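Example record

One chain of 347 residues, shown exactly as stored in the release files.
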Amino acid sequence: MESPSLLEVLQVQEIDELILPSIKYIFAYFTHRYPRHLLRVYNSLDDFYNVLKVVIEYRSLKKWNCTSVERRFQLKRVKYVKNAESLASLFPEEVNSAVKLSQMGILTKIFLSYCAPYLISKFNTLSDSTRFLELNINYNTEHNSTESEGHGRPSVFRTFCSKILSKLKRLSTILKFTFQLASKFYKNLRWIYYLLFALGIIPFSNPVDHLLKQRLVYDTRISNITSEKAPNLYALPSLLDNSMNIFLSLVQVLDWWQTNDYATQIKKGRVAFTELEPPELSVKNTSLTKNICRICGHTIKNPAVLTTGFVFCYPCIQSWLKDNPFICPVTKLNLIRKENSFWRIMV
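Predicted structure tokens for this chain:
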């Protein structure tokens, strides 16, 4: 069981953390245009997303032993068993059964990774709203106290509210300080785990995985998403299983389109592929050779796509662009996005 590199683990975490901001950015754009219909949805977006995220990740962990983002990188979660690699050749069935995630492990993973951060963020929001409530009640108590002083009797409401608010404020301050201290400690501890994981000292990339005795490994048995049989996307289970992959692909396409500013360039006629006709494909370009790299002539491994739309081996296109900067090997056209002219395909 080969473990992924630290960069791949960080990339998985980064993509997972960017999903909610991306959704909120898209909703903010449409909410600005249609505030009457979408404002309530936008204000409750965190709640809807967390519920949907828990459902999707539970199905993914139950079915594939990995989260939806980890599945995209062909990774899976297994329980840590000492000397599992050496025992797998002797007792394959027993080892596979031992490393498989249990129901309790899946539920604990979901709670610590998704429910706990959500509850902490809700507590921070509640503490901020408590300050506003304190200001509002202070104003009301001052107003009531002036009326009570005019009538010559003490304000019972003011005394009761001041006691409740003082206790809530003290409890909120203690909890908030505890959460801040724990958050700083966890961030520093996570960097220590990153260092130990990169050096190969421990098989766990973060404290949560260490607590659950779960580790990430490559899973070549996860079929390529592009080569799977097309499921019925209108069925709810299939829609939930593939929703995260569809959304991530959509975000990548939108980022590519927005970064290159193709909408403006097409209007001005500055896009290279609008100036020339598509290249004529030879007779050899049949369905039998579509997986062949145009540079090395072998089956594409570790694919990377160029801005012109052709797919090559990642090492091949990297070395080609060093010798032939910003030129497509097939079309011989100059590449527009010279800084990032190709991307590695993670499937």
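Notes: The mean pLDDT is 76.
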